[in-house]
Write a structure and sequence with these properties.
Helices cover about 20% and strands about 30% of the residues. With about 300 residues, the protein is of the alpha+beta class. The model has no long low-confidence stretch (mean pLDDT about 85).
Length: about 300
């Protein structure tokens, strides 16, 4: 698989975070609408068999990259106050510049916490529910808040590992997605974006001598034989069916525990291009639905970290 970067420019705020599993689901709906359910089924069967056509990262602000989960363990907290304070400061670091990220993934943990980095901004907007009988708003208790997001750098980077021969088709699917919008409230203009340029070959995540672990740039669910020794945080995802399935009567998926993007796992040898799996039996109303839960793996080096 070859690695690429796709840059997009949001044209509005968005209500749905740019996470790999949601992006993948949106592209699957595009494929179903464009080519039919049978084509989509064949496509997803390959993922269920561990042979994905492409794997995606979460959307990253500009050129910034997630800080690996082991970064906050750079110093032994019990040795001295200075070491404790440095570890405490590193624990707050969420994003790294490309140069610092490359240094960290090569085993260097002697970094200064970055300052003034612009990433995503979260804010809330006030909405009013509509009375379905009168068609009006403004009744007592009808107001509610929705969280929205904006990227302060005005660009989002999505990293991809694509099987040979799939580059053109992936780009075509994403181009169609840019015409429909992404995520919640796209019918009223939220999640609008445009693609900047073409797929850009990206070599900054290449394997290197001494790589003995991987970091995931996407939330994922480990497969049975994936490494289990590492540094990670978890999240519980409360997913919802999309497309026409939104109106099936029971659109909510089962809660799913995932390992957060930034998680690091020891491999003891050069890591694979991806880990994780597809999660089946995720929606009671639609048993054929699967959840994308692959890890976009970036090789890193861990130096004597317990």
């Amino acid at each position: 698989m070859n690695t690429y970067r796709l840059k997009i420019k949001p044209q509005s705020s968005f209500l749905t975070p740019w996470q790999a599993d949601t992006i993948f689901g949106s592209l699957c709906w595009i494929m179903a609408w464009r080519e039919g359910d049978d084509v989509l089924k064949v496509f997803l069967d390959e993922y269920k068999n561990g042979n994905p056509a492409f794997v995606l990262s979460d959307g990253m602000p500009g050129d910034l990259l997630l800080a690996p989960a082991h970064l906050s363990l750079a110093e032994k907290k019990g040795e001295c106050f200075e070491a404790y304070q440095k570890a405490k400061n590193l624990k707050k670091v969420s994003w790294l510049s490309p140069d610092v990220f490359d240094s960290v993934r090569n085993g260097n943990l002697e970094i200064e916490p970055p300052e003034g980095i612009k990433t995503f901004r979260t804010f809330t907007t006030l909405h009013s529910s509509i009375n379905r009988i009168t068609g009006t708003a403004g009744e007592e208790g009808s107001l509610f808040e929705l969280p929205e997001y904006a990227v302060e750098q005005n660009e989002i980077s999505i990293y991809l590992k694509i099987r040979d021969g799939w580059e053109e088709k992936f780009f075509s699917l994403f181009k169609n997605l840019s015409l429909t919008g992404y995520g919640k409230k796209k019918s009223v203009g939220k999640g609008a974006f445009e693609i900047i340029g073409e797929l850009e070959p990206f070599d900054k995540f290449n394997d290197f001598d001494g790589a003995n672990a991987f970091m995931s740039l996407s939330n994922f669910v480990p497969a049975k034989d994936d490494p289990a020794d590492g540094f990670y945080k978890t999240l519980v995802k409360y997913g919802k069916l999309g497309g026409e399935f939104t109106f099936c009567g029971k659109p909510f998926k089962k809660p799913l525990m995932m390992l957060k993007a930034g998680s690091v796992f020891k491999t003891g040898k050069p890591p694979k291009a991806y880990y994780g799996r597809m999660v089946e039996d995720i929606a009671l109303a639609k048993p054929e639905v699967v959840q994308y839960a692959y890890a976009f793996a970036v090789p890193i080096r861990l130096n004597n970290m317990e």
